[in-house]
């Protein structure tokens, strides 16, 4: 992933100074609590109803876009250190659901931030942030009906795969809404019944994506950008079939997973 | 037009003080707060072992009764049009006469609804899946599937649960689970208990084979029986055992075999490929060896469950026998996935009629009548 945009450093330096002067470490000047990292969609008009994504001259409604993150870690003095998400409706200590919703539907059914259960001081010491897009094997395959929120969000159930979708993107063409396209990703080809293989080896395709993002040690006020158009780059949504239950080795699933792994679809602003 | 319901999520709820006190009463053996559920009696023939039951969902009279009510209730679908019994009709041995099922929004599914007969003994569920080890897990598919929508529960949980806060339901939930407030998890448990209770072992064949009643089968049916268990037709290799399917497990043998077979129903490219819309077990495992493999369903009550095969593409039992007799479709083309037992056989019209007559002897009239009358109650 790329370094954060340098232009942000100076204003943030100023902010850091201001914060230290006022002694405020609960909510900083941007109105954030410690450990809060907002995610912003880019290339998508989030004020529109429904949200509109522009790809070249085409416009697509983003009817649903959400993904799970898990296993947050920071690197301090060269060592990775596990941290927790703050427990909320959108986060368990180890998993978080980001869910971007069009405002005309139910504005409360959306979450565009993660909140790490850490002090601002610890974040300032961190040189990297690491997390996984996806859910751990045991959480993914446990009974979703009895799991805590957000793991019991049925729109992310993937019952044919006996698990959860890790990422869900449903779009429809603006002005031609019957033309729909979906990308649903999760672990496939899993066999959790096997007692003789370790869990990680029991899925033919685990389909988790790990992110390692650099952190500037003075700057804790950046947002993460999420680019939907990077996820679907080089996939013609007019022509390509949806990718929901198909093998990751067939198109367009193959291209989509390559995009998730190689294109910087989550990066600092 | 379907009413759009705002997506809402259901929460797992901590037990309240009253419930905790009630639980305590049950633990200490008291009956002051609520009566403990009654263990379910299977009433199986002596030669049939009990099925395995998940430890976290014991069979009780109350859970089966609640599950039966839910199974026949359209309130379980988001738009209140479809019940489990819309596709699993007791008159058809809990299968359907349509080629493929139709969901609550009118969308066609890829597959024909399986008969819910002795499902408690299944080693695997649906037509082709190697990673669903309980009815409880399977049930999440029809309830929550969105592509296509089957019952349409996703995002509509709160609306649906509210419907079960009235009428007989609070008392039924209370009796089964000690809490009159419905939850999706308890609905799934009750439906699983009811489906598990659908055991059928009282056909003419059972009278002949297990109760030594020589008059239970006709001479023609006996001829069919002998053909069925012959190396010529090979039927029994996949449809063997007391449940007429290899894919079985029970309490003496908890680790069930999960055999899946490619019958050669399709061979799209002369290399064994199935249509992209449904490639059987391959669509779950993405292992090429699983191309076109499906589970051999039970043949009990098979005369009632037409049409046949996973996509309902064969209309009658006579046509199914003709299909296997010619060694599957496109039998002359190479097909590396086709089961070695599907190699074709010669059979006269008289023998075919005998085989059909034998398959008809697997119908359990008492079972069907009992459940049809309950449906009509």
From TrEMBL, chain A:
The keyword Signal applies. It holds the Pfam family MbnP. It comes from the Bacteria. InterPro entries: MbnP-like, MbnP-like_dom. PROSITE patterns: PROKAR_LIPOPROTEIN. The keyword Signal applies. Keywords: Signal. Residues 1-23 form the signal peptide. Transmembrane segments: none annotated. Residues 56-244 form the Copper-binding protein MbnP-like domain. This is Copper-binding protein MbnP-like domain-containing protein. The lineage of its organism: Bacteria, Pseudomonadati, Pseudomonadota, Gammaproteobacteria, Alteromonadales.
